Amino acid sequence: MEEPNVTASAIIGFAKKLEEDSLKFYKELAEKYTQGKETFLSFAKESEKNKLLVIRTYQETITDALEACFIKGLNLNDYLTEIKLKESMSYTDALRMAIELEEKASKFYLDAAELSESLLATIPTAFRKVAKRRENRKLKLKSLLESLM
Amino acid sequence: MVLLEEPIKEVLVIKNYIGGEWVESEGELRNVINPATCKVIAKVPISTKEELDAAVEAAKEAFPEWRRTPPLARARCLFRLKELLEEHFEELSRIQTMEHGKTIDESRGETRRGIENVEVATGIPSLMMGYNLEDIAVGIDEYVIRQPLGVFGIIGPFNFPFMVPLWFAPYAVATGNCIIIKPSSEDPISQFKLAQLVEEAGFPPGVWNVVNGDRIVVSAMLDHPDIVGICFVGSTPVAKNVIYKRCGETGKRVIAQAGAKNFILVMPDADLERTIASCMTSFYGNTGQRCLSGANLVVVGEGLSEHEYSAFYDKVVNAFVEAASRIRVGYGLDTTVQMGPLRDKSKKERVVKFIEKGVEEGAKLRLDGRNVKLVGDWPHDCFLNPTVFEDVTPDMTIGREEIFGPVASIMRVRNLNEAIDMIHSNPYGNAASIFTSSGKWARKFQYEVQCGNIGINIGIVAPMAFFPFSGMKDSFFGVLHGQGREAIRFFTESKVVIQRWF
């Protein structure tokens, strides 16, 4: 299958939405499941910081000399995941949903970093930083899940 | 398709900014068209000579007090402007896309480069320092002091409506001069918006003026005895035969940056994947409408046998054509789009004529951008898709002349010496790049090639704001360049003081 081309602005737009959706998701989790409230609220707060970091890095790095329009091989649809909480969803299932979100998000940031390495100067460094944060979240969520088993 | 919101909702009527006032021009109003949608987004006045004269008067009047304003206070105006530019970063970028057609990534890149020039100019208390030496003879000291000169004119091009005036303006005002900017009448909205922010930043009236128009304003600038220098970016015929010539006759300082025909060399040891990715931006970024665009891709067979060279050439050409064919063309506010339209219909027609000429002169058309395929339903008036020719020779029109559009000409050359000779046979000398893993070849290229901006594994050799934007031969007329320390020298006179006390 042909590898898609993607632009920096599309990637940044995707990252922005991902963090906004994550923020909303974790706020909802915090409201619905008091067991993990503090953790979820800290994730929500971190998503706001992630968004700022990515946008700021992009806006401060982008110049007319960068190959920002021609990033090859990243299909943004591969990183979409369902994060809508259902009314009757158990805490365990909600945690599983959150873990899937973090796995996809972490993979998105790592792939975006790798594919834009030679094209976008310092932006991949920011992506890797956020990927690491997302990876840490996944570990924390897994430990919450294991504690229920 | 993710279409960003347009910041211009209704037709703007552009005014001149003279002496701190927004002044309606008496000249005719012309439409400013969004080249992607073909809708009128603004009306720009074609100002009169008298209006330019009024701006010069305002600038002259402001100059004595502004030059006496401490450099630190002048820098603070620039710091405030920088903050405002950051606040309006997205709006300014989207305006560029609407008035010029470039993609949103390209517009944001342009905004950033413009802001960087403001940032560099805020260092004026250090940058403007002179130097001194005690005891050049017993009891006698000598100094060099840098002083501003007065009123400068800045004539902007259509291809970078926001950034290019900022190669000059921040340095001019930071050093204590006053300026008059004439934006391109094709896309004047960025400078209109910038002047609003300048006003908000608190620059005194008359320091920063904007007079819209066409050649009447340019001629009036060139002839005006109270304008001490001109900064111009545009075509070579105008730079050489009008701007440079007239400035010489009237004794004005001049920076005249002009056209280009940039060669990109691909050596057999180049990292092909990265080279091709870089070339896409170089050849098709800004729809080929920039003086740093790649124009001729030269596949060099240094050290290869005939058979190996043939295979290498085919590999490069096929990879280039394949990548170019997948470029998504459309309205630049769609974040998935990689190339926007030409600035207007006549520019598209001009590029089409070059394509026809290429076919007529025997070049092999591998990808025909006249077959317009767009992302989204937009009028085709100003759009072309990427075009690739191969088997182009340097004597062909498309291999020799500046096309200023999304057309790549691929050439064959057996060795590096031949490739360098080919670059030198072209009258332009703006930029040239080599893609290689060999330090030896890279150094030879950097050392020998007579171009102002040299790229080693870089497709767009755009100097950062603290380096000069260079250029040689028919690509530049003048001595000092825009940006950085050279701009500081351009906008100041070096006064020598020798001092002895009895």
The main β sheet of chain A shows up as:
2 strands, antiparallel
Oligomer: heterodimer
Can you tell me the number of structural domains of chain A? 1
What share of residues are in beta strands of chain A?
under 5%
- What is the tally of helical segments of chain A? 4
Number of strands of chain B: 23
Tell me what the CATH architecture of the largest domain in chain B is.
3-Layer(aba) Sandwich
What would you call the shape of chain A?
elongated
> Could you say which structural class the secondary elements and strand pairing of chain B correspond to?
alpha/beta
How far apart lie the N and C ends of chain B? Answer: 79 Å
Q: What is the CATH first-level class name of chain A?
A: Mainly Alpha
How many helices of chain B does DSSP assign? 16
Would you give the CATH topology of the largest domain in chain B?
Aldehyde Dehydrogenase, Chain A, domain 1
> Uncertain regions of chain A: pLDDT < 50 for 5+ in a row?
none
Gross morphology of chain B is globular
How much of the sequence lies in strands of chain B comes to 15-25%
Q: Percent of residues of chain B in helical segments?
A: 25-40%
The low-confidence runs of chain B, each spanning 5 or more residues with pLDDT under 50, are none
| Biggest pleated-sheet summary of chain B | 7 strands, mixed
